[in-house]
Amino acid sequence: QVQLVESGGGLVQAGGSLRLSCAASGSIVRINVMAWHRQAPGKQRELVANIISGGVTNYADSVKDRFTISRDNAKNTVYLQMNSLKPEDTAVYYCQVVVTTTRMLTLDAWGQGTQVTVSS
User: Fold this and answer.
1) What is the DSSP letter of 111?
2) What Å distances lie between residue 74 and 15, 49, 70, CA to CA?
3) Rounded CA separation 34/99 (Å)
4) CB-based contact 98:33 (threshold 8 Å)
5) pLDDT 10s digits, 72-92
6) Sign of torsion, CA 22 28 31 36?
7) What are phi and psi of 8, to 5 degrees?
8) Residues 106, 86: Cα–Cα separation, whole Å
9) DSSP 9-32
10) What SS3 class is residue 100?
11) 106: which residues sit within 8 A by CB, 6+ positions away?
12) Cα angle 49-33-72, degrees, rounded to a multiple of 5
């Protein structure tokens, strides 16, 4: 009922920037939460940043002042601007949304993941 399409991953040198996008579509009445998570090899998935319907944002300490999460409500899209990238930011990045559907159900949907690799 909810589809997510991620884009923007890739290979970048340390200190560089990337911008991830995630567009949600389907039977959506309201998007309550949009978030980015990441999972590095051999590590657990962790929350990178989220933004709730009121525009409040939260960030992992490791990315504060370097990453910025934003959303375009008209396009049901969430972005993650990543600056000053470090090799330790290398991971698969996953988009997550929590939505209210046209059937008034609350759904938690995840994207397929996009690889971000930062070379030293």
Assistant:
1) -
2) 32, 20, 12
3) 9
4) yes
5) 999 999 999 999 999 999 999
6) negative
7) 110, -5
8) 36
9) -EEEETT--EEEEEEEEESEEEEE
10) strand
11) 32, 98, 99, 100
12) 85
Q: What are phi and psi of 108, to 5 degrees?
A: -115, 115
Helix-strand-coil percent breakdown of the chain, rounded to 5? 0, 60, 35
Q: How far apart are the C-alpha atoms of 58 and 55, rounded to whole Å? A: 10
Tokens 């009922």: give the residue. Answer: 1
Cα atoms found within 13 Å of the Cα of residue 34, Cβ hemisphere only: 27
What type of residue is 36?
W
Q: Which helix (H) or strand (E) holds 57?
A: strand 57-59
Residue-wise pLDDT for 13-33, tens only, equals: 999 999 999 999 999 999 999
